[in-house]
Design a protein that fits this description.
This protein is an all-alpha fold and 90 residues long. The protein has 4 helices and no strands.
Length: 90
């Protein structure tokens, strides 16, 4: 209502109904404590998984840097010999 405007009961009740409707939508949007805990657990597990993958990737990159890409990927200078060693064929 605007200042100085005469009170209109119908408008007032209409606004109250609109507020109640919006509050019902808000109640549905808010998660229960159990849902919040579940969401937190999922996010924590995801974060831990990503951190483990990052650490593993960093370890692999450090190993590649120390030992050289060629030795780790194809067994050194001779690619066929490296492939045979990888497959277990002599």
């Amino acid at each position: 209502m605007e200042p100085g405007k005469k009170f209109d009961a119908a408008e007032f009740y209409s606004l109250i109904r609109a507020i109640q409707t919006e509050s019902d939508f808000l109640k549905q949007a808010v998660m229960t404590p159990e849902e919040q805990q579940e969401r937190s657990n999922v996010l924590t597990n995801f974060d831990n998984t990503i951190q483990a993958q990052v650490l593993s990737t960093i370890d692999h990159l450090a190993s590649y840097q120390l030992h050289g890409w060629r030795e780790l990927i194809d067994g050194g200078e001779n690619a066929e010999e490296g492939a045979d060693q990888a497959s277990g064929v002599d």
